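Researcher: Quick one. two chains, 1008 residues in total.
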Amino acid sequence: MVEAGRSPNIEILTSARLENLDGKPGRFTAIVHQEPRFIDDDKCTACGTCTMYCPMPVVDLFNERLDITRAPHIDYAQAVPTSYYIDARACLRINYETCNLCAQTCTAQAIDFSQKPRKLNLDIGAVVLAPGFGRIDPSVLKKYGYGRFHNVVTSMEFERLTCASGPTEGHVVRLSDREPLKKIAFLQCVGSRDEICGNGYCSSVCCMYAIKEASVAKEHDPDLEVVLFFMDIRTQGKGFDAARERAEEKYGLRVIRARIPRVDQVDGRLALTWTTDDGKSCSELFDMVVLSEGLSAPKDAEAIAEIAGIELNHYGFCKTCVDSPLVASRKGVYVAGAFQGPKDIPESVTQASGVAAMVSELLSEARNTQTVTLSYPEEDKAIESEGPRIGVFVCHCGSNIAGVVDINAVRDYAGTLPDVVFCRDTLYSCSQDALKGIASKIKGNRLNRVVIAACSPRTHEPLFQETLKSIGLNPALIEMANIRDQCSWVHSQEPEAATEKAKEIVRMAVAKARLLEPLEQTTVDVSPTALVIGGGAAGMTAALCIADQGFECLLVERSDKLGGNLRRLVWTMDGGEASEVLDNLIKRVDGHPLVCVMLEAQVEDVSGYVGNFTSSIVKAGQPVVVDHGVIVIATGGREYSPTSYQYGVNKRVVTQLELEKSLASGKGILKNIKNVVMIQCVGSRGEDMRHCSRLCCTQAIKNALKLKGIKPDIRIYCLYRDMRTYGFSEDLFKEARKRGVIFIRYEPDRRPEVIERDGRIKVRVFDRLLKDEIDISACLVVLSVGITPGANDVLANVLKAPLTPEGFFLEAHVKLRPVELASEGIYVCGLAHGPKPLDESIAQAKAAAAKAAIPLAKGKAQVASIVSRVDKAACIGCGICESLCPFNAIRLFRVNKRRKAETITASCKGCGICASHCPTLAISMGGFTDEAIMAQIHAFAGERCV
Amino acid sequence: MPEGKAKKSGAVMVLGGGIAGIQTTLDLADLGYYVYLVEKKASIGGVMARLDKTFPTNDCSL
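Model:
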């Protein structure tokens, strides 16, 4: 977010909406209407004085109406843009020309009532729609007592209640009397899987967030009793089942399988009544009921669709298809995130990157034509190498710091510290004017080290570093002293102690600043080729996408033909022909001038780092050495091969893929077949593999419907644990029930059995309603087998890439970096990352292609300036640092028969793990040397002890 | 700036400043395109900014 606010090539238009879109792909004109903020973002320092003085209370929408704010406000402390705005509907000055208090009290003079709405004409090449999702209609919530009973809240409201910066500062209380809770219930599928409200689909995220919210509530209060009411538990995401099991066990969450029809109030508590799936009727009282509300189509979906000229599906979300999930119905218009269908954060982030790749394919010829690159004056090495001349700037931050800390005292104290030649206080150091002032003082006084005593380096250090760069000083020559968070905020009641602490923090910062050294800013050239490993649907999609963006791509496939698992698939989830998708991909790969395919080849060795990898690929026993800048792993997965349920023993027991194959080759297989039994979770979720294979539920239903389509009187039983037909696949589940497919749920400790007697097969399963075992005679048993990772360990070893316990490649961050590995320049997509259906594999392949194309498009890779450095003389070659480095950024090499460590600076992230573990202190971190940190500690302790 | 009508524009509009819109914007800027991020609210961040923590890691969402 902050990054988006800072980039010179991103223009954030807030309070804005699209009004018109004309033109064609590559050349659109968009008209955007923008409402005024009435506060100038460039001048606003986010001090909060305007909110303090405004007399007009308004309901805080950000906090789900649970709190009150004022007409001028900021949604949350870390908001981007970091500027306040005025709610025009409530403002007295705007509506009645009175008051004006905010303008009078704003010392930064940022309030500007002369701002008018404006219309912008944007010339653009493509449009990406990512408007997110809408909220469930309140009328749906009403039947659960929402609005009538205080203690019935939505999950979003509960989210704000558990948040430390929320209306109750994180204390979970009853809203009726603000008393602590004893017992709380979560009701799932509110506004999802609900025909009555028109949302027949599954919202795909509520099961996860309910478990999260329940866990967070238990962490706040371990004595709290939490009950969750599920129909099916749909935690099909990567690693999510394991996380759910951990949460259930750790926090003792009670899970009940029932759908609650209504909520009643009895003696001030909330009564829930339900029937269990074995027919028992139960009732209990709760202090609070949380409604896990689903995701709706955005409220303005129809308006967006009309303006952008795209089609919506029957639920009002953007219409897309399986083989191109990111493409809207108008050419040049793309879609990502929940607007494409309800989805979780990792899938949204994946689609977002994927869509960037698709835009980049369309516009590759116009790349870098409209971007700006910032240029800086050359570094003044002469000044930098002089003895330290330190300048200290102490920030008032309006009254935010100065209201507690005596700024003048801190400033004068700073002037007495060694090597400080200049000190000054500033009202708002971060404002544009102040930054100019700071720059001219640095120049005028020939300062070569700067201490800013203000707020957090996390948010503001880049800004001050930028200032240094703009006047030819190395950005590493700045040190921040956080006297806001650590003094005025936490000691707001003790101004004198806060002032003393501020002095100490400044003293420590000065001690460190004296030892700051310029850090080298280096870049490395990038070899403009990508290596894609694996020629299945994901690998081919990724390769084509990289090539379509204008970069060479080498596609390596182990077998003798392209296609991978897609070759075995007959129908896609929407019933389309899988072979069409396959043929189309292969045709494009073969015909693309920038894609080079190597069949029957394997990657044996990889060395190097982002931008400069060298790999040895073995084909027909002959190694070929190639240089490339990035790597995409798309090695796929395998169909699990079961050893149970008489598979391989009886030929009437087949897998779903085998069923598809025989159905495709003719209807002969269905001759004399009356009863079909499908068994879900074969291999998945516990038997052999811990993970959920994500796609088998939808696959089973797809095939059940195919069978019903061919032979309507066929009887189909589906034995399942949780039907995980998330998103719009829920429609298929509903259709299957309507067509008479019988679903019987089994518990993992009472799995079904396949019994053969006198040439006949029976499936024995425990029926929960009859409380007895029943035998279903089956002419055909179809096993929904899961997906196992391929032999990923070999490649993982070559790449030094980590795997999950299940054997899939482990991404850098499950939510925010779903296709990147921790080592830079290596990306993963498709089944190699985890089980997923075709449309998700394709979106992910596009995402990997976007990430892979970034270093290729830049042509140079920027090396972080804070990196580790090994003192070769002190290094004893023990290898601890190499084994601990999470980024493979340290290698060992031999000098005169002795092992020495060396940092690969291009890969180093500056985390400092190596330096903190080195037994001989041979490793130092740029910007955080041992000497500087020791000086800082001495500066703290020194004066105190004496 | 590209000249002539036939040439493609190197700028993109992203509608919506939630996690999907922001990620698209960042990637496009990194890929060499100028991006207009159009958000109807007064700040970007969308729903994710309002979440306290995220499943399954319980990381802070900001």
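The longest strand of chain A covers residues 16-24.
Researcher: Thanks, that's what I needed.
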